[in-house]
């Protein structure tokens, strides 16, 4: 194991994705120095080397083999245009790249942008979008504080990332079109050598277990034996619920796993079917 070439993963050094990227590795049971000062850190208990980078550099470093895989926003991947493979969506860093115009504009539809000047840090995605929609506008690339461009007379509109919308609001702008939705993804170099590919599969196996667990809850409940069948029909479970007799005669405990989304609805149905003392417990990992 010590002679094994480690898998090199690039994550954002500091920014909106760094805490969640580190958390993901931690939840996968991989322990790494925090990288506040270092550029590279070796995991203690998994053949993994972590490269701490600016998010904009991650697609290129993954594509050219400096890193094998990376955690980065789909927006950055789409803008950079390097050949990388999206291996998993990671469920954090959600945002959208949107067109926004001054609030006073009575926006009639995309043709409003014809001949207008649009400031953005995403010129490639924006240009592709506009030409796909048959709109000819002037794309003006700026690297930061895009939202102030219309106010200082630099542009008529902007295309920028939005999550809560409060930045647009406080700059007197309104969102009028969504160009793309984005979240953080795990990307990989297209043709990883065999050893690295196996390490990536081990990492992805852990990510899947963590993500499945995050979407599920473990449920334990008590019920009179004659209600077991009715309650089992409500509980989807992984196969069928585990039924354990209680010390009290005629009673059993049922154990199962339910989906977070259907949680409240199922709890009501379970109570109506005779379930009592319902315990709902978070799950750390789920492996099939
Ligand atoms: O230093 P480095 O280059 O690594 O980081 P960065 O400053 O370029 O990126 P960072 O850390 O700001 O964002 C990293 C990634 O987080 C982005 O590429 C997106 O994939 C994702 N993300 C999610 C966001 C947002 N939400 C977001 N709201 N990135 C930026 N914003 C900005 C947006 O640009 C705007 O200025 O937040 C403002 C809008 O937010 P709301 O909530 O006011 O709408
Ligand atoms: Zn960046």
Written description of the protein model:
The chain has eight helices and 15 strands. It is α/β, with parallel strands linked by helices and 288 residues long. The strands form three sheets. The chain has a six-stranded mixed beta sheet. It has helices at residues 18-27, 58-63, 74-80, 123-132, 166-170, 194-214, 228-234, 263-272, and strands spanning 7-12, 40-42, 48-53, 69-73, 85-89, 95-102, 117-120, 138-141, 157-162, 173-182, 184-188, 216-224, 242-245, 251-259, 276-282. Bound molecules: phosphoribosyl ATP and zinc ion.
| Contiguous uncertain segments of 5+ residues | none
Order of helices and strands: EHEEHEHEEEHEEHEEHEHEEHE
- The rounded Rg comes to 25 Å
As a percent range, the share of strand residues is 25-35%
N- and C-termini, Cα separation: 26 Å
The major sheet is characterized as: 6 strands, mixed
The distinct ligands, each listed once, are: phosphoribosyl ATP, zinc ion
Determine the fraction of residues in helical runs and give it as a percent range.
Answer: 25-40%
**Care to count the β-strands?**
15
Shape: flat
Chain-wise SSE layout:
Elements: E1 7-12, H1 18-27, E2 40-42, E3 48-53, H2 58-63, E4 69-73, H3 74-80, E5 85-89, E6 95-102, E7 117-120, H4 123-132, E8 138-141, E9 157-162, H5 166-170, E10 173-182, E11 184-188, H6 194-214, E12 216-224, H7 228-234, E13 242-245, E14 251-259, H8 263-272, E15 276-282
Parallel strand pairs: 1-3, 1-4, 7-8, 7-9
Antiparallel strand pairs: 2-3, 4-11, 5-11, 6-9, 6-10, 12-14, 12-15, 13-14
The structure holds phosphoribosyl ATP and zinc ion (ZN).
């Amino acid at each position: 194991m010590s002679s094994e070439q480690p898998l090199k993963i690039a994550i954002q050094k500091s920014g909106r994705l760094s805490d969640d990227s580190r958390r993901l590795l931690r939840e996968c049971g991989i322990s790494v120095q925090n990288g506040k000062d270092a550029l590279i850190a070796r995991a203690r208990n998994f053949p993994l080397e972590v490269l701490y980078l600016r998010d904009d550099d991650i697609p290129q470093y993954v594509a050219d083999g400096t890193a094998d895989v990376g955690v980065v926003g789909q927006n950055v991947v789409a803008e950079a245009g390097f050949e990388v493979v999206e291996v998993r969506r990671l469920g954090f860093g959600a945002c959208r790249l949107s067109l926004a115009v001054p609030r006073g504009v009575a926006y009639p539809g995309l043709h409003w942008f014809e001949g207008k000047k649009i400031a953005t840090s995403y010129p490639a995605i924006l240009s592709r979008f506009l030409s796909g929609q048959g709109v000819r506008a002037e794309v003006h690339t700026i690297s930061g504080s895009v939202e102030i461009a219309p106010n200082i007379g630099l542009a008529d509109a902007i295309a920028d990332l939005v999550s809560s919308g409060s930045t647009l609001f406080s700059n007197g702008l309104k969102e009028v079109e969504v160009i793309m939705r984005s979240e953080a993804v795990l990307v990989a170099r297209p043709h990883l050598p065999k050893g690295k590919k196996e390490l990536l599969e081990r990492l992805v196996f852990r990510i899947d277990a963590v993500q499945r667990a995050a979407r599920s809850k473990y449920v334990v409940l008590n019920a009179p034996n004659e209600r077991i069948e009715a309650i089992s029909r409500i509980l989807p479970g992984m196969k069928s619920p585990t039924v354990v007799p209680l010390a009290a005669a005629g009673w059993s405990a049922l154990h199962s796993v339910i989906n977070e989304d259907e949680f409240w609805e199922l709890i009501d149905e379970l109570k109506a079917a005779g379930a009592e003392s319902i315990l709902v417990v978070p799950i750390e990992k789920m492996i099939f």
